[in-house]
Amino acid sequence: NCSVSPRESPPAISLPAAVLHQAHSADPTPTPQTTAAPHKDPERPERGTYQLTDGNGTVCLLAYMGLQLNISFNSVSENKTFQEVVNVVPKSTNVSGLCDSKKAVLQLTADGQIKNLTFVFTLVRSASICSFYGPFLVKNSSLDYLRGSLGYSYMCRQEQTLTVTKELSINTFQVQVQPFGLTGEQFGAAEECQLDEDAMLIPIVVGAALAGLVIIVLVAYLIGRKRSHAGYQTI
């Protein structure tokens, strides 16, 4: 079981838990690896809108994002290491879960390879992620992703990779999520991720450098022109 022990902390949202059920059969016992099974990466995943309502019918969690799973595991029976990239398809994904004042659980259930993917957002800092592929289990109890302030939505336009363990990571695409403090069915003001801020900073720095270069060239031209006129002045 994945459990989060509550304790007080400043208002903030984080991603402390995700549970994934995978259809493949695998063995958690380390074995010598021989060859890697070939795989073909899917295209960029489609963004889906996922929302939860509380007992009063009020929207308590809203997410708009594309999800892609990077999976790696050993198969003893086939003596191979399997590596797969799997997209979460919104139109074939059912949404369920629950909300309360300090925790929101978003459960995505789909046919095919992905059986169950669960995100648990909390207002505490402790974090844990468990991932299941049949009998195969990985767990990480110290993750802190998609963090934002209470009443605001978390936004990241850039692709992110949320590493759970060496066997599993989750790619997010153009994610915007808010599990607490929603007003109606609209996101609160967005707090952008560091990747977006860095991406915006680069063109600003380049533009400032070019502007500085233009000014330097212009000043050098004016100084040179003034000096050239000085030789023709009447004494």
From TrEMBL:
Disulfide bonds join C156-C193. Keywords: Cell membrane, Disulfide bond, Endosome, Glycoprotein, Lysosome, Membrane, Signal, Transmembrane, Transmembrane helix. Residues 202-233 form the Lysosome-associated membrane glycoprotein 2-like transmembrane domain. It is a single-pass type I membrane protein. CDD domains: TM_EGFR-like (cd12087). Residues 1-50 are annotated as: Disordered. Residues 38-47 have a biased composition (Basic and acidic residues). It comes from the Eukaryota. Residues 45-182 form the Lysosome-associated membrane glycoprotein 2-like luminal domain. The chain crosses the membrane at residues 200-223. Belongs to the LAMP family. This is Lysosome-associated membrane glycoprotein 1.
